[in-house]
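Hey team,

Sharing the M18 family aminopeptidase run so nobody has to redo it. Sequence (435 residues) first:
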Amino acid sequence: MSDVNQFNANLCAFLDASPTPFHAVEVMRLRLETAGFIALNERAEWCVEPGKSYYVIRNNSSIVAFHCGTENLQECGWRMVGAHTDSPNLKVKPTPELLRHGYVQLGVEVYGGALLNPWFDRDLGLAGRVNYENASGDLCSALINIDRPVGVIPSLAIHLDREANSGRSINPQRDLPVVLMQSEEGVNFRALLKEQLAQQGIDDVNTVLDYELSFYDCQAAAIMGWNGDFIASARLDNLLSCFIGLEALLAADTTQHTVLVCNDHEEVGSQSAVGAQGPMLESVLRRVAGEEVVWQRAIANSMMISADNAHGIHPNFSDKHDGNHGPLLNSGPVIKNNVNQRYATNSETSSLFRRLCANCGVAVQSFVVRSDMACGSTIGPITASAIGVKTLDIGVPTFAMHSIRELAGSRDSFDLHTVLRNYFELESVLDSDNH
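Structure output:
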């Protein structure tokens, strides 16, 4: 198996094992533990040592992993890569049970800017975190992943909606409750969760208190296309970047100070204790730096690469792109630019990335949104403004972003991994003569 094929096989396995941010962070934690990374508890004293590697988890949905390098931190700074663990989805409401015409349904909320039409007529699994009180009265939590089709949102037949192909709109409150089963009496959803926990070997549950659960598409990630040109999966935005960053960090040596941060809640604005607009990354880096002057000098010598998927030019909708900025799948990572700082790229950080790509023999592309369209954003500008670090926004070109199933090129992820691995090992990320 070639390096690219092996990389993609591992990527598909990661995507399938990570239906929620909680599961993604758990998979990353296990990888880091196997590689010798040491867990740090934010409630305890830290003693980090040069040449060793560590990680910090908050809320079980955000993670910061780093090599504590052997070079002088305040002279070399950190080489950072950022991504996010969350994706648009349908989350189960706190009191979700609906019984209508003999069908048990669960009410859902739309998390993030989901493309809703593709959610209809899919085999839906259910996963997330359940909090409960055990038989001893302790508060506990556990992850569940019901990775079989337990729900569906059936479309209305076209015979009953003749405008379905020309003018259909979706009302999330009315149209998205998920069909779970048939019953004349209804069910208690928390009782179903208690049964699921028992099937997982957790048989001391007294009361299910609350949960954060999401429906997801059961269809596995796949390499597809006549020549295997594409990878199709749920949650490519942005677990693809989490995986690429993780693999690059694990492959890099421990000479330089390198950091991978994967935040939750990007899809809803990042304003949380574990989002990029929260204090997690800064808190971790300040504790590693120790003294204030070390922190200030280290940040001035640091750089962040925010990795989040880019919009590939769709052959059926090419007019949605600026004519000179239509990224192609399998043609290299994309530098994302926006003069209004929706992306944090500037000419200095993009120039360094272009040189990195050239040194690795990897093509590079640019994206600028049409001047008459609004631009999305990433954790890049948020992180840059929060800690004052020079930042670049890049990503792998993708189709159908925010759909239940997205599409990317099967060669782009490995190419970006190669570039990020080399970035992590740079002796200097900035030209000191310019400061």
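The chain has a mean pLDDT of 95.

Ping me if you want the raw files.
A.
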